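Lecture notes, unit on protein representations.

Consider one protein chain, 83 amino acids long.
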Amino acid sequence: MNIEIDDFPEHGMGQLQNWSYETDNLLKIGTALIAETGIAFDISDRFKLYSGIYAVYGLSDMRKNEKSSLVSYHTTSLEGKTQ
């Protein structure tokens, strides 16, 4: 069974024609505090199993103003307009 999906705009699939977009990078440099720890278990001479945890804590905001969004995704159409 072969299925081809070529027009499914509500899930981000569709046809784009004459598309162009320009933007400036409006983000600041981000800083974070990162910690990681773990333990390795010897399973055999040639195989080890590693288990660990990590944590990341953001120390700064990358947005230049509070009203800007880092990511935008329009679920209703490719153009970002409601149908």
